[in-house]
Amino acid sequence: IYEFPVDSETTLQNYDIYFTNEELTDEQKSLIEWYRDVFRPEDLRLVESVQKGLKSRGYRGQGLIMADSSGSGISEHGIAHFHNLLAQVFKD
């Protein structure tokens, strides 16, 4: 999945799904349909809301990860941790 924010109102999305077999199985076809019908629309709504937030006058440049210090479960601490792990790996 590639998402390219073009501006505060436009994000281009590209989904590539790779399998090792040449002929798709029924399970793989179902997965592709789930990505198209469930995952992608959810992801698209999230990206749109982030882009609107970036455009708002309330945005102060504090970063793109939403962090809730109360640990309510609606924050992106896990994503931030994962990105930090990746940064460490690629830094070395």
Which descriptors would you attach to this protein?
single chain, 92 residues, mainly alpha, two-stranded antiparallel ribbon, 2 helices, 49% helix, 2 iron, 2 sulfur cluster binding, Aromatic-ring-hydroxylating dioxygenase alpha subunit C-terminal domain-containing protein, iron ion binding
Care to describe what's here?
The protein is 49% helix and 12% strand. The protein is mainly α and 92 residues long. It has one domain (2-91). Strands 1-2 form a two-stranded antiparallel sheet. Strand 1 (2-7) and strand 2 form a beta hairpin. The longest helix is centred in the middle third of the chain and has 30 residues, at 26-55. It is extended, with a radius of gyration of 17 Å. It starts with a strand and ends with a helix. The model has no long low-confidence stretch (mean pLDDT 79).
Cα(first) to Cα(last) distance is 25 Å
Strand order of the largest sheet: 1-2
Shape: extended
Structural class: mainly alpha
**Overall pLDDT confidence:** 79
H/E element sequence: EEHH
Alpha-carbon Rg, integer: 17 Å
Oligomer description: single chain
Report the helical percentage: 40-55%
**Integer count of domains:** 1
What's the tally of helices? 2
Beta-strand fraction estimate? 5-15%
Summarize the main sheet.
2 strands, antiparallel
Sequence stretches where pLDDT stays below 50 over 5 or more residues: none
Question: What is the number of strand segments?
Answer: 2
